[in-house]
Structure formats: structure tokens, C-alpha cells
């Protein structure tokens, strides 16, 4: 019983649905429509307004072949296989009625990329959504979308899926779409865009011949595929817009005219969908009812002021039953409108009546109007047009006077005239009875186009003369200031400016120079300005002014900017003494020098190119820097860097590598050297004693024998026969407490020679002891010894004797 009732209710609803919409179909949804193998797919049949329940089954078709029946609206594929791909639809039947869904294609791929496109049915103006899914994700994937194998979009996606949505505005959106991740491509999906509405066509009413003054209707005919599309229409004539974005698809003209003839087209625009379409062009010709009017003048075209004037508008009608009305114009001004008479009368013309005239004819109760060509009417004046004349014959130069005269031929003696002069259409003077204008001394700015105006105030008549172009010639050209030297000078260079002018008349000129607008008081008939030596204060903007003698003509030149900068410093030379191999505890002197460069110069000493040792700004070309008490940490590369304000560039010297020899090595070297020198010293001592013995036998007894000084050296007396004596040169190094160090005594050179001067041995050795000795002197080699007096001692050097004679002081040893 219940089943029977339910069937009756379903039958009642089904009959109602069939009556309301016999073409009603079901809707099939597949999720996902593009699937990977192994994915779960659900097919859902939608659209039934009755619950079918378990009594009427859904029928599922694949490729038009029934594959299954279900009593619910879903069909599931739990693990998609490649064979599951195809075209699906769902149906259900009740007696003679059948509801059928649309065909939906299911794509199944075994690859790693799949593409799904929505919606299934695409119209022009719809948005098309492309969904590209990856089977696996590896960070940010670079996804690319293609249409007909042409790249249309690319993006980076973090997820496994990416969506690209765009609008399809025309049928050109049809094509084959796919997506790719790297070199892996998806399935290809074909999209066929359906037309939203047809291409418009222009329909004309009436279809036969079209005449003036008759109605004309144009219709933009469009066939729409959807009932809910809102279209707007635009009409064009000869490629110009007549009406734009109208809701009406027609254009109506109450009375056609000849001007309505032309080429027409229309445009249909679905603004919501953004789809526009244009019709083909169609030609329309409108035939006339009456001819174009002709304006006639009953007497001569030239009319004297005060004469009467009659205008006649002549029209040839095709149909005599067409009454016309007439309108007369002067230029665009309406003189009289819609008159039944084709003539217009003027009792007394004035100068203002001169001009271009036309007339217009139109049928009564009609919008049709036709206008004649314009006719020029000239009224003869009471006095002639002024003639402007200048007083010079051929040329006029700066500083000369100018007289302009406004000539007028008077026709009537009762006319009183006033004059105004103009230059480049601007008044130069107020209204005057004087027909001449005077300029005491013209300048170049007086060049221009002149005219004059004569005015008969009583008759209210004004006349303008011809134009005269006055060109004032230069007596000399505008000065051109140029620099014969460079405009960007280095400090100390010569600045020379030359003020050049071209002279057109024989005249004397005076030149004056300016810097930054201030006169330099360098007035001369010469055209140059020179500074022997340029300094930064000479920088600025220069001009020259040229004045013609016995004239008021002055001219200023162009501006010339001059800059003065210092000389960039040269690359530094880096030297040191004594050598780049130093003994531990010793010292060294570095010298950084340059050959040129503007002062002051900044000197910077570096170790290993990074550590700044010393910085000094000086006006000298070389700077010393001393290091003392050297040790192993002093080893490295030493250099200097120089710079000055003339350049931002800092210049680096070459590197000097310093090596430090430790004390133990110095001691071993000293012992070996001492041993060698001791042998030489003994040989020298033996020879010395032998020669001394021979000399003592032949010399006088003026020299005491066996006398020894405090320091163990024999004294030298100027009375001694020194020519026969020889000495051993000894260098002794002492530490800071003046005690001798056996390890620090180095005999660098032993020579046997005759001294040219004598010094008291005690003073000599005392001066040596008084010399300040640093720790580095323990292994310093002295050869030969120069004694320098500091304070109370002596000071002598090789430079003291210009003849190059020996200035060394020597110390001899006492006999043992």
C-alpha cells in the first residue's frame, strides 16, 4: 500500500516536471574529473525534484553503454584505473518519460600531472578555470599552463595543486589545454567555446528608396544563445559614433537628409561578460526633394557704406507642393529665421555689413534643412586702408633712430582720424593724432612686425595697415666667451679667456670681464683675460661685456664655468735603512716620498696593508717614520699610502718585507767575524810595531815612549811626525750603562792608513762613549768611525770637507 502511494506521488510530480519543462535534463558531477590512477572518484546525478528512493534506479552509462544501476544518486569508483576513463552520463526513466544528464568526460592518468578544466560548457565571456594537480610535491613546483602547446601562464606552487583562471572573450579561446611540472606533462583537455550571441547585422527601413524628410530606421539585429544576456548597442556612420551603449537596438531618424547618406555599422556589447561584436558595413543613399540654395545679390558686390543691400535665396524644387521657409546668415550669426520670403533687405549698410553671407531653406513641418555656399560682400570704406612706412632705406643698425609713418588716403574731409602703433600685435602708444612714431636709438629687441591703426571715432570705423617687418642689424654680435686654456684647471696652470665678437661696422670696442657677476676691473680694448697662475679662488662663472665706444650698445656674453683643482699626488716611493734584515733589538727608518702633488699631503704608514702605524699631514714631499726595539713581531710587509684634496684616490707604495734576526744568531755571526778580524788585527799590529821600531831609530826624541792614556790608547800629538804612523780603525759599541759587552764588539774594517788630521785619543774615545747607544747598537758595524759631538763634543761628518779628504777619527791601541 505504501509503495503504491509513493509511486502515485512520484508519477504526479514527474508529470508536472515534464509539463513544465519537457526538455529538462539531469546534471552529472564527477569529482575529480581528472584523476590519478588509484584515486577515489565519485559521480553524482543531480536535478531530480523527487526522491526516487529504492523504486526507480539510476542508470549509469559509460561511452553510451550501460555499466550499472543504483538506487541512490551516486556512483563510486574506489580506485581509479586507466580503463575507467571515458564519457559518462546518468539517466532515470518513468514510464515514457526519461531524464538524461549531459555527457561528462572522465580522465584517468597514470602519470604524475593531471589537468581539470571547469566549467564543462564554456561560453564567450565566461571564466575558464584550469586546475593542475601533481601526484607529489617537492617544495615549490614551477607549474606551466599551455594552450595549443603555447605557454599562457606559469607560477610557483607550494601545494600539489595550482589554479589558473582567465576570461574567454571570444571563440579564439577554443583549443587544447594542458599543464606541466618540469618536463612532466598532464593530459590534454579540449575546450570548445560556444558563441554567446551572433554577429550583428544592420537592417534598414524602409527597404526601398530613401528620400529626404522621410523617416529612416536602422536596426542592429543579434541572435542570442542565452535569454538572460543584457546587450548594449552602438551605431556608427562613416566610422564615427552616432549613438553609444544604448539599450535600444535601433536608430531612428524622423527626416532623412542628403547628409545621412553614408556607410553604417553597429556594435553589440555584452558588458557583463565583456564580449563585443561588430556588424558588416552597409551603404545608404538618401535622394533629395529640392536643390541646394544659391545666394544672389541684386547689385554689385562692392557696396559703399550707407547704400541699400538686397539678398535673394534661390531654390529649385522637385515638387511644387513642397512649401519652403528661409533663414539668412552672416557668418554664423542668424539675421532672420524661418521667413516665408526668399529675400532679405538692408536699408543702409555699414562697414560691419562686410562679410560672408549664406541662406538656408527647409520644408515646413520638417527637419530637413539645406544651406547655400557663402558669398563675400565688401563695403567700400570712407578712408583708405593705412599704409605703414619706415624712414630708413636699406638697413638699420643698433643705436640708430627709427621713424614709422602711418599714411591714410582721406575720401571725405569730414573724417577725423586717430592713430595707434603696434609691434607684434601689442600697442606701443595710446591713441594719438600724430601719425608718426619715433624711436631714439633702436636695439635688437626693437626687431619685429609693426602695423598701425587708423580710427574714425565718429563713424566708428577702424582700419588696420599693412605689416612691416623691421630687422635691426647688429653692429657687433653677442660676445662669445671661450677658454683657450682648460675649463677644469689644475692648481698653478694658466687661465686664459678670450672674448670674441663679430664686428659688422667699423667701431671701437671696450671689453670688461666678470666673475660670478662681479667686475674684475680688467677693462681693456683687448679681448682676453689671463691669470699667470690659477688658484682655487679663481674658480667661478665668467662673462665678458662688450661696449661700443660713443654708443649705448652693450652686450653680455655667455657664461663659462671655470674650476680649479689641485694636482693629484704622485705614487709614493717607500724606502728604508739600513736594510730589510734587522737585528733583534735594533731599529729602522722608513721614508715615504712623492715627486709632486698639491699640499698638504697625507702620509699613512701601514704594516701588512691593514695595520695603520703612523699618519701625518705635511707640506713636505717626504716623511720619515722610525721603529725601534724591533723583535720577531715586527716582521711583515711595510708600505705607505699618500693622498691629497685634489683627488679622492689614495695611492699605495710598493711593499718592503722586513725580516728580524734573533740575538743568538747575531752572537754567532759576531764571534765568527771577531775571529776573522782578530787575525787581521794581529797581522796589522805586528806590521805596525815593526815599522814603529824602524821609525823610532831615525826620529827625534820629541815623542815620549811608553806613555799610555786612561783608556789604554796612545795619545796623539800634533808635533809627532804623523806621516810615518799607521793606525788600526776600531769600532766599539756600548750599552746604555757605558760598560763594554764582549759579545757586542764588532770590528767591521781594519785599514792601515795615514791620517790627515789628529785628535786627542782621549777626546776621540770619550766622544764615542758619550754617544747615545740603543740596544740595537750591540751588533751594529761601524766602519770607519765618525765621531759626532753632541753637547760639548765635536760634530764632524764627511760633508764638512768639500775636497773629499778623510775626516774620520781613529783610535789606536796601547802596546802590550
Low-confidence residue ranges: 1-7, 49-54, 698-816
What structural class results from the helix and strand content? mainly beta
Helix content: under 10%
Give the N-to-C terminal Cα separation. 160 Å
Q: Summarize the main sheet.
A: 6 strands, mixed
- Proportion of residues in extended strands: 35-45%
Shape: flat
How many strands in all? Answer: 66
Over the alpha carbons, how many angstroms does the gyration radius reach?
Answer: 60 Å
Number of helices: 3
In round numbers, the mean pLDDT is 77
Polypeptide structure, described:
By secondary structure, the protein is mostly beta strands. Helices cover 8% and strands 41% of the residues. It is built from three helices and 66 strands. A hairpin with a 6-residue loop joins strand 36 and strand 37. The radius of gyration is 60 Å and the shape is flat. Residues 1-7, 49-54 and 698-816 have low confidence and may be disordered.
Structure keywords:
mainly beta; six-stranded mixed sheet; 8% helix; 41% strand; disordered N terminus; disordered C terminus
